[in-house]
Amino acid sequence: MKFIDEFRDQALVQDLARRLAALAAGPATIMEVCGTHTMAVARFGLKSLLPPGVQLISGPGCPVCVTDQIDLDAFLALGQEPDTVLVSFGDMLRVPGTRTSLEGLRAQGADVRVVYSPLDAVELARQTPAKQVVFFGVGFETTMPATALAIKTAAGYGLENFSVWCVHKTMPAALQALLASGEVRVSGLLCPGHVTTIIGAEAYDFIPAQFGLPCAVTGFEPVDVLLGVESILRQIKVGKPTVDNVYTRAVQVPANPRARDLLAEVFVPDDAPWRGLGVIPGSGVRIRETYARFDARARFPRVWEHLTPPPPSACRCGEVLRGVLRPLGCPLFAQACTPAQPLGPCMVSSEGACAAAYRYER
């Protein structure tokens, strides 16, 4: 049965490649916004199936990569606090800060833990009441509900030793800023399926309305990605840009009401710094006053006292995130910067464009 399914997928991919060739009427640059899309495109060699003149470029869809250096340095500084446990997803472990990384801190003796869910951090706080447990809240709308639930759970337990260093960000605000800058010219956008399960496809209505660009919400299998590209090329051909949801098995047009209400209860919009994009108004969230006792920024205000702005870096991850530089175009790529010795997050994150190019496209 598995062989039959794989054969059907191969036949469908070949059919999609023929349909793409028939739709392509000229050059088109499509940005795959999500880092998971970037990795899938590289892993499955999907660029080789595109018609001449149609190209895919990466965007600011890797949450680890867009986490600003000063936010990372601040969280790393918590490692100097006594009786403090730093908790994070595994993707952040080797991301280089200005002086070290979470992995480096752990080698120096700091208590650094990796979890699969923010609720694991809450349970750790329950089990170690003598320690302050600080969770690094990184990610887009996909992971924000889990962090919000962890905060509510900690409140229910009455925990006094759990807090969140919140650097969560919202995808539509970044796309708005990127497109408004005019720095990179794209013909359409592949929008992230998992983020859109939370915010709904309607969150991208501003893209065709304000910028006249087609977009398609799609999943992460090869067929999903190619269906998204087909949708964008078709919209270009007929001259009617819209938001096309080709991931209907998971995504609805309106926002998920339960997730929306949970996020509104725990978080409030806030300005946020993005690596490569600067400070984008309303693109982040902060913890509401109701749950302020779980805000690590308020609990550890002295962390900022000795922080200084990071010095200029040779890493060009910011340009990669804006789509103005391809990973293979960076002079440091696979030379001074490798997965073993990364100079920036784009090379070490599992959703990083440089990591994808290094592994699959060299």
Please explain how this structure is put together.
By secondary structure, the protein is α/β, with parallel strands linked by helices. The chain has 3 domains: 126 residues, Rossmann fold (3-Layer(aba) Sandwich); 158 residues, 3-Layer(aba) Sandwich (Rossmann fold); 44 residues, no CATH class. The chain contains 16 helices and 11 strands. Strands 2-1-7-8-9 form a 5-stranded parallel beta sheet. A hairpin with a 3-residue loop joins strand 10 and strand 11. Helix 1 packs parallel to helix 11.
User: What is the share of helical residues?
Assistant: 40-55%
> What is the CA-CA span between the terminal residues?
34 Å
CATH evolutionary superfamily of the largest domain: HypD, alpha/beta domain 2
Total number of beta strands = 11
Please name the CATH architecture of the largest domain.
Answer: 3-Layer(aba) Sandwich
* Global morphology: globular
In quaternary terms, these chains amount to single chain
How would you sum up this structure in a few lines?
The chain has about 350 residues and is of the alpha/beta class. It has helices spanning about 1-25, 35-45, 65, 70-75, 100-105, 120-125, 145-155, 170-180, 195-200, 205-210, 220-240, 255-265, 295-300, 315-320, 345-350, 355-360; strands at about 30-35, 55-60, 85-90, 110-115, 130-135, 160-165, 190, 215-220, 245, 265-275, 280-285.
